[in-house]
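Researcher: Re-running this chain for the archive, since the previous output was lost when a drive failed. Same request as before.
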Amino acid sequence: ALLSGIDPEKVVRMTWIIAGALATIAGVLYGLDKAFKPFNYFQILLPIFAAAIVGGLGSPIGAIAGGFIVAFSEVAITYPWKKVAEYLGFDAGSSLLQLMSTEYKFAVSFVILIVVLLFRPTGLFRGKAY
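Model: Regenerated structure tokens:
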């Protein structure tokens, strides 16, 4: 980069500024949607960590794929499928047809994280080894 006239320190500085701005915007938007509580960070820390590990550290495409896998599996397992079953013509009765209660949403993230670490420790997409 130095030979082509690019200042690496300036690139690193701008990257940190952009990352900080995006994190600030994400925090503000999260605060508009949810109420801030003292241990609010824990509710989003485990799914983010699980998504990064599942996708593979160092791989941006893997992080996106891991985020989709973790988010959709949390929703699919804790979703009340009663309306879907009624739409398809099945009689659900008084049950909600949930596989797990919504309190186990974080357990789903943790189980996915453990399974991926057991069978593929590098994640689904291998990132660059530093």
